[in-house]
Every structure is written in C-alpha cells, then in structure tokens.
Predict the structure.
Amino acid sequence: MHIHLDAVGGVAGDMFVAAIVDARSDLKSLVDTTVAALQLPAVEANILAHDDGRLVGRRFRVSCPDPPHSTVVREVRESLMVADLSATVRERALAILALLAEAEAEVHGIVADEVKFHELGGLDTIVDLSVSAALIEALGVQSWSCGALPRGRGMVRIAHGTFPVPAPATLILLRDMTLVDDGVDGERITPTGAAILKHLAPSQAASDPTPRRLLAVGNGFGTATLEGRSNILRAQLYESVTRRDADQVAVIAFDVDDQSPEDLALALDRLRALDAVLDVTQSDFIGKGGRLAARIQVLAPPETREAVAAACFSETATIGLRWTIQNRVLLSRRETVMDGEGGSFRAKIVARPDGKQTAKAEMADLADVGDRAQRERLRRQIEKWALEVRGESDDDA
C-alpha cells in the first residue's frame, strides 16, 4: 500500500488520526483500544463525523485536563513505557517522541533529556503519538508521499514568547522538506504533525509515474477554521498495480571527470549496495578539454528516485544528473540455491518467450573457487543442476 497526504489545511496529530480513520473506518476500534491501553485518567477520545459546509470527514477529539506549566520529556516517555501497547507500537511512538524532543533540544541548545514540553506537555500529546503509531503500524504501508506543505502566515504565541509560524521546533522537523506559502494565515503545521511527517519520511517528488489503484480517501479535520478552504488533511490510500511482465524504472545518468578511478570505483560499489539500486554501469568517453570521463547509469524503482539521486551526489563528484522514467519488459525468473562442498551457489532460472528455460550461475558465489577452468566446470554443473531441479518442481506442480 502507498498513502499520499494532501495538507490542504495543514498537518497535526489529530488531523492525521482522523484522516486515516475516515479512509479506513474499520480502524476506529483500534483507536479506542489504543486509548484504553494508555490508562490515562480523565481522558476521553472520540472519532466524530464532521461537516464544515464544504466537505465531510472526521475529527479526532481528545478531552483531557489542562496541561501543567511544563512536562519533562522523560515523564512522557515513562507514560508510553508503562502503557499496555504492543512492542512495535510503543517503539514507533517513542521514535516520534524522540524527534519532538530532539527538535526542542536544538531550539534551546540543550540535550534532549532536559527538554520540558509546554504546549506539548498535556495528555493529548501522548494520545496523538500512541494512536498515530498504532494506525501506522496497522496499515503496514510500504511508502508515503505528500505535496508541498503550507508554511502558514502570521505569529503564534507559545510559552517562550511570540514567534512567526512555523514555530521554531516545527521548522527544524520540516528541514529538507518542500514548503509553500499558499496565502492562508495561521499555524498550519503543528510540532506533532511535523514529527509524524518526519517519521514517515514521505516523498515529495513532483510526479509519480507508478501506476496505482485508488482504494479510499479520508478527510481529517483540524480545530481551526480557515478562510476559503476546508481545514483538512486528506489521505489517499493506493495499492500498486502490478503486471507480470512489465514495469517502470528510473534511469539516472551523470558524468564524472574529476574523481580518481579508485575513489569512483568505491563510490559505485556503495551505490550498488543500496537496497533501492537495481543496477549501476559505467562507460568511458572523451569529454570537454579532451579529458577522459566516466558516464554512469543507475537504475532504481521510480518511487526511490530522489533518495538514489541524493546518494549519487553524496558519493560522486558530479554536480548534475539526468533522469527519465522508462518502461521495461521483464522475463519471469526465480532463484535457486545448490549446496556443495565449497559452499552455497545461487542460480537464476529464466523462462524464455518460446517456453524454454535457461539458467545462469551467480558468478560472485564462484569468486573463491580455484582457477578459471575450475570455475567454468562448476558453473556448468550449477546451471545443469538448476534446470533439472526446476524441471522436477514443475512436474510436481
């Protein structure tokens, strides 16, 4: 599953919860059980239907006592630690809390354990963190994305004084994300909302060529009223549309003429080791000034293009790259493993269009095997064995 978030009005913890539940009403019971697991006194949380006259959706309303003047971060952490949450949900909630604490610590120039929450010191923050973590965990989403986020306008009054929006900690959490001034006043992204976004690490690519099937849409309302638009966070839930023999791939290309061959080789090995990278190739050519240069091509899934491009800039000396999304056709393949005296040897079996099957041994597994002749004999043995095993399994099927 993939989820795209539209910050039409903004992003806050309660808006995130409401948007997800509006799209997946079956998860409402999870919200109730998570709140009960926190065992917080005098706290009541409800998912409510909401209509602002433009759109309909849901709100997540948490009623609780007013927060104390300040709450030390470790007290919030201890509340999460003693709550009857699953280990994975607790870990995710603590991770979001840590992002909040680290941002506040950077603002005030202190260590995270010394942070005192003021506006975030209430029990509603614990509820928002825990319920958001539970929903994220239950969805099992493979990827997230969002558009440009609204910067907001005006000033916000907090315990440390009056500041322009976004608030200082929110700005730190939104670092490296794309923001836009959409002309609407007010605080549009809260610190909790920003921490959830940072935890999700959504892509903000300008385009997404991956074909997806829209499953559901949810509108999560915030508490503020905005002029001219609904104050919602919209969640779009998608599933991938997979085809057996075709998909798309991002092709990233760039040239390097000022990096030593030894260091470039190391850099390309590091790129190949990334989970998102499908292949890396290098070819040499004569560039400007008659200099010998290397042309690099990297293949990656389209949704990972930005992350892979960032890695290319980080590992190599290039200052510019080109990318395209290209269709490709794939033959059906599977991998099998032969265990022998020298270790385990992999082979890839491919089904050809004419119905025949071919096998190719993984040469990296033969790196420590004797000389060339010995490697060649073992390669043929592995490939013959792989086709025989494949044939037997097909007969059994």
Notes: The first helix runs from residue 13 to 23. The longest strand covers residues 246-256.
